[in-house]
Amino acid sequence: MKYSKCLILFSTFLFLFFFSFSLQAHAEIYEVEVDWLNMRSEPTTTASIVGRLSHGNKVSIFQKRNGWVQTYYNGEKVWVAARHLAPAHEEKVFLAEGLLSGYTIVIDPGHGGKDPGAIGHNGVLEKNLILETSLKIAKALEDNGAKVILTRADDSFVTLSDRVFISNQNSTDAFISIHFNAFDADYVGGINTYYHMNGKRLANEIQMALSKEVPLKNRGVIQHDYRVLRDNKYPAVLLELGFITNTAELATLQTDDYKDKVARAISIALISYFWNQR
Known about the structure:
The chain has helices spanning 3-8, 12-19, 126-143, 160-168, 200-213, 227-230, 247-253, 256-276; strands at 28-32, 36-40, 49-54, 58-61, 63-65, 68-73, 76-81, 85-87, 104-109, 147-150, 174-181, 191-195, 218-223, 236-243. By secondary structure, it is an alpha/beta fold.
């Protein structure tokens, strides 16, 4: 891995303990109490400003010095004035920007166009819910510095071979195909992740992160020879993000809150995945 990637991801391991709701890294979580708070390169008011936090942001603190506390921003150590922070007890923390810089992620919204996918309650089409969720995921990954390629960005039909071609032609670091599930019985629900050969570790990371972020049953990781996985040269997974034939579950799947949680989980999983393979 290139040195620049290693530098950007140096702080990731520490952040990931918090993302998995573990306190093993011995950092403390604080919350910004003022409208805005400068992040500086050194613990002094004369040091250069490298970023800014807003009221309510959560930050992980790793050391303290003369009224200043140290956290990370874009993979670099930064300092903020301790007097503007208060201890926080919430699980989620401020997600530093740039942790996925240098990586290319292909997001593959399944179905589309003449292929509606499954049809859920009240005529909800899988292809539409997939696209809405995929755009949220793409935005979250871009916000974390990743280069994101969508196999479709609208209601168009893309063949399976073209989806694989897009991945194989772009030196993809991870390929993630987005789907929703369906079943005859209304009571069946939950999320699961598929892989073929080279995507097992990626599948485990994503399924673990999803199971912690979203309020649905964890159906686990499954090996399968879906074409978009089998013919992909790069680590590839296919996600089933819930059952649109489950009345209660569909109501959750359609909310922005659920889509945001899915996007966050995938971001966390990818950060962990890339850090652990360095």
